[in-house]
Structure formats: C-alpha cells, structure tokens
Specification:
- The chain has 409 residues and is of the alpha+beta class.
- The chain starts with a strand and ends in a 32-residue tail after the last helix.
- A hairpin with a 2-residue loop joins strand 7 and strand 8.
- The chain is elongated, with a radius of gyration of 30 Å.
- The protein folds into three domains: 229 residues, no CATH class; 81 residues, Transcriptional regulatory protein pf0864 domain like (Alpha-Beta Plaits), CATH 3.30.70; 70 residues, Ubiquitin-like (UB roll).
- Helix content is 31%, strand content 30%.
- The protein is built from eleven helices and 20 strands.
- The protein has a five-stranded mixed beta sheet.
C-alpha cells in the first residue's frame, strides 16, 4: 500500500497520528504500541473536531506524570530499542538538532521533543503505518509558516532552526503565519517519505484528516493522508516523442532497432508535414518509466533532434505465453495473449514465419497461413481455455501438452 501525506497546511506529530487514526488505525492498536515503549506513561484519546469548516480527528497524548525530564538522544535510543523505525526518526532529529547547536547527536538535549507526548507521537505513527500495511510513503510540499515561535531557547524564527535543517532537499513554502511545521512532524516526514511529489497515481482506499490544536480562520489546520494501491510497473508507461525533418531516411531502421535494444517496448514513425511545408517524421517510443532515461539518451545519440517530449501513459497488456507448433516438420513459435485463463489473441511469430518461408521455399504470406492453420489444428484458437495446455509465462517458447497433433517442444 502507498501512503501520500498532504502537508500543504503544515505538519506535526500529533496531526499525522490523528490522520492515520482517521484513516482506519484503531486507538487501542496505537495505545498498545506506545505502552510497549512507555509502559503506563501516557494516555491516548481522540475526538472529532472542526478546523476552518473541515471535519478532522484530533489525537491527544496526555502524560500520566506531569514532570517531564530533559532527555538526551542516548536516553531516547534506549527507550526505543524495540521500535527501530521510531528510533530512526529520532536519530534524524538528533542529527538536525546537533547541526543547529554545533554539537554531537549524543549530547543533544531534546527539551520539548524529548517529552513523552512527542515519543508517543513518533511510536504511534510508525505503528500505524505497519497496521495499515503501508509499504511506501511519499509527501508533497510542506507549509512551514512564518514569523517567530517561543521555544526552550527563547524566541526563534520560523521555520524553527531544526525544521529548516530537516527541510534540506525538500520543497517548502511559508503557507501562513506562525509555526506550521514542528521538528517532530518534519522528522517523521523526512524519515518515512522517500519522495517529495505531488499526489501520485493511486487507487484510493482510505483518507484520513488529522487536526492541529489551533483553529485558524480561512486555513484548515490539518494534515491529510491518502492511502491506496499504485499501479503495477507493467501498467505504467512513458511515451517519448520527437519530430525529425533532417535525418537520412536510410538510418531509420537502425534507429528503431537501437531504441529497442536500449530498452524500449516499441518504437515507430509517423509521417508529418512541418512548418514551411517540410516533410518529416514523428518518432514515438513506448517504454517503462525505468527505461525512460536510457531510451531518451539513445534518441539523442541516434537522431538529429534537439528535444524530446515525454508523457505518462497507463498501459493494459494481456499476459503472454509462447508455444511451438510444427509446420511441415519445422518449428514455429506462436504467441498467445490471454486473460483469465482464456486465449484472447493467437499470433505466429513473424521471424519464425520468415524462416519457415525460406526453409520451404514459399512466400511469407503462405508460410503465415500454414502456421495459423497448424495452431488452429492444435486447438490454439481465440476463446479456448489456456489451462488445457498449461500456462507458461515469459518470453521463452514453451511446450504444449502431450498428445496434440502438429505440436512439438
């Protein structure tokens, strides 16, 4: 499952925890995770509130003991021995605080963030992600606020020094007045989220809204989370395009072959008429997102274009199986496109058809017809159940079941 964090109004540990509870994580599950680290130290409650007209969940972490000692990173690390992801969050926070104060992480005293409620926020958030089955996290731009905030060291500018340090490499903006992003919230986001991105393409299964303490008019003081399934890599595709009007046409076959070798799934040309009446071609290449960079580089190497356009696509592809049939004693691979265990497409591989034509001394169209007839005679027809022969996924030709005439391994 993929989780995306909307921190466009700011972020804090209790806000993120409230959003995850609102997305479906039970309060007893959160309390149990916190009790495993801080036995009997805090009580966690939740209530529905309104923030600038939006419904949200407000989580309260109430320490049972009022006295909150100052803790070093060494103290907290020992407490989080059984919660490694939470320990990673605090380690990042310790590094940021050390950079701000010119000391080492081991010597950092956490003041506010060392309080039990901050530890409970971090532990609760990490446990909530496990409970939701989250395997990857990303987040958008963070609103950090403006002005000043009073802390243990006095009045500090916003964003607070630790928040500014934790923001390195991330997109931020002011987004409003006051402190909108806390060090704990920023440390959680930077540790848990691998990518700063706008809302990715997901099929949403849950939405959670967590509230901050203040209710600011005209700006809902909330963090939102969206949970969902991402498309499989096989469904994601990138289309790369370039218009070319000055390439020797004899080079195009090699260009297309080179793009396929570079990782493209397909590549083709479309004749066009460009400005000033110049005849040209649009080169279009389909590839996976992972192959986009090397394929784009190959376009620049092999053509004269000065620019390449890119767009995302969603691809729906049939599962494929290859089998061999015998045509006049010669093997010919047949590609089967199938879905739900039923054959949807039957296509003899044309390279095998061409080899068959040469071997038999016949026209390629006749060899194609014979290969189709052999496949039909073996029962490889649209609508037939694939289970009759057994599915063989992947690119290598497989063997049909025993006892079928005209079929060989």
């Amino acid at each position: 499952m993929r989780l995306w964090i909307d921190a466009s109004a700011g972020i804090a540990g209790d806000m993120l925890l409230g959003a995850l509870h609102d997305a479906g994580v039970s309060l007893p599950r959160i309390q149990a995770a916190v009790d495993a680290v801080l036995p009997g130290a805090v009580r966690i409650t939740a209530a529905e509130v309104n923030r600038a007209g939006l419904r949200a969940c407000k989580v309260e972490v109430t320490p049972v003991a009022a006295d909150q000692p100052r803790r070093t990173w060494r103290d907290i690390r020992g407490m989080l021995a059984s919660a490694p992801r939470a320990a990673e969050v605090f380690a990042r926070l310790a590094e940021a605080e050390a950079a701000v104060h010119g000391t080492t992480p081991e010597q950092v005293h956490f003041h506010e963030v060392g309080a039990l409620d901050a530890i409970a926020d971090v532990v609760g958030v990490c446990a909530a992600l496990d409970d939701l089955g989250v395997t990857s996290v990303s987040a958008g731009e963070v609103a950090v606020g403006s002005g000043t905030v009073r802390a243990a060291h006095g009045v500090l500018p916003v964003p607070a020094p630790a928040v500014a340090e934790l923001s390195r490499g991330w997109r931020i903006r002011s987004g409003g007045t006051g402190e909108l992003a806390t060090p704990t919230g920023m440390a959680l986001l930077r540790t848990l989220a691998a990518t700063c991105e706008d809302l990715p393409s997901i099929t949403v299964s849950a939405v959670g809204v967590g509230a901050g303490t203040r209710d600011t008019p005209s700006r809902p003081n909330v963090v939102r989370v969206l949970l969902g399934q991402v498309e499989s890599p096989a469904q994601q595709a990138v289309v790369l395009e370039a218009n070319v009007d000055d390439l020797d046409p004899r080079l195009w076959p090699g260009v297309l072959a080179g793009l396929l070798q570079a990782g493209a799934d397909d590549a083709w040309l479309v004749p066009i008429l460009m400005k000033k009446g110049r005849p040209a071609h649009t080169l279009t290449v389909l590839c996976s997102p992972a192959a986009a960079d090397p394929v784009r580089a190959q376009i620049f190497r092999s053509t004269s274009t000065l620019g390449v356009r890119a767009s995302s696509r969603r691809k729906t592809a049939l599962d494929r199986t290859f089998v061999r049939v015998s045509v006049d004693g010669h093997a010919c691979a047949v590609k089967l496109g199938h879905s739900g265990g039923v054959i949807v497409q039957v296509m003899p591989e044309f390279e095998d058809v061409a080899a068959l034509a040469r071997a038999l001394g016949i026209a390629e169209r006749d060899a194609l017809a014979r290969a189709g007839q052999a496949a039909a005679a073996a029962g490889l027809v649209i609508g037939a159940p694939l289970s009759r022969w057994g599915e063989r996924e992947g690119g290598a030709p497989g063997e049909l079941g025993a006892g079928l005439a005209g079929v060989e391994a």
